[in-house]
Sequence to fold (351 residues):
Amino acid sequence: MEYLFKSIACLLLFLLVHRLFLQQEVLHRFNRFFLLAAVLLSFLIPLNQIEVPSLKQAHLVEEEFSQPENFSVNEGFTPTEIEYSNKPEAFSNWDWSKLLWGIYFLISLVFLFRFLRNFQLLISKINSNIQVNYRGQTLILLPENTLPYSFLKYIFVSKDGFESEGLSDAVFEHERVHVVEKHSWDLIFVELLLIPLWFHPGLYWLRHAIRLNHEFIADRSAIQRTEITDYQYELIRLAQSGTPSALVSTLNYSLTKKRIQMMTKTSKPIHVAWKFLAVVPILGLIYYGFSEKVIAQSDKRNSEVHIYSGGNERSENTYDLAFYLDPSGKIYQEGEKNQKDHELSELDQWL
Fold:
């Protein structure tokens, strides 16, 4: 659970950095790499181990073992009997963890079914409708009235609309970019993660950010084929239809003021450079903060711990017990340690 919480928090912080520093800049292809790397790093960073100095930890251990109150012994202490009630309690033997696991797997099955259903519907449309080679791309002519969208290497368009009006250069270029840059694989990757991790809030935010960034990339290429105002008008006209599937890339996704404004935005190199300078230390803090901290191993042959009884002062000669921890992880009492040192000494002489 600790790993899972760290992973979720790590991805949320990565996405917050993207939202505050990178999303508003014309760095769409870099942002695509950043978003995909963020989800992978969010799972890997909590597994990373960073060694920290052991001096402070050793001091805390010495303080803990040397405090008199921690080792005071009550001579008059006698164990008391614990009375157990024989009265049956409702649900006392019920394992609630099984119920929670059952709910988790049931919801995961629902997400798996949804993914397979959407995938199967798209494959069925590909196999059951007319395919046309158009400017080097494969069009799927659909009988229903729908806006153009793409999936894998296919572009889906309305058969009646294509035969009567054709496909404008801007719309075709928009969908062609989705196909050529393989945007569908990004969406499939996130949808697969959502099957076991349907409770992960960062993955829903990630899916939204990836889709919006895909649209920025496609829009930037499309406006090179037509006037910006004409393209924006066409987007608004096509915005009447809904998104057919969570797996596809479509013109209608997230048609917001932010997206339209991004079409005419340019980024100043000096402004981008300052943002990168701010982002790098933040990412370093995320890496250090969510990595697992381990105590650095001491160079000494073994570590010694003294246990003092109540009322004794800290002195090398007044401790009651001494334990030794060697690098292999074994713990020895004082007599055992001396015997081990004697055996090692004889072995060194023989070698």
User: Anything to note?
Assistant: The first helix runs from residue 2 to 22. Residues 68-73 have pLDDT under 50 and may be disordered. DSSP finds twelve helices and ten strands in the chain.
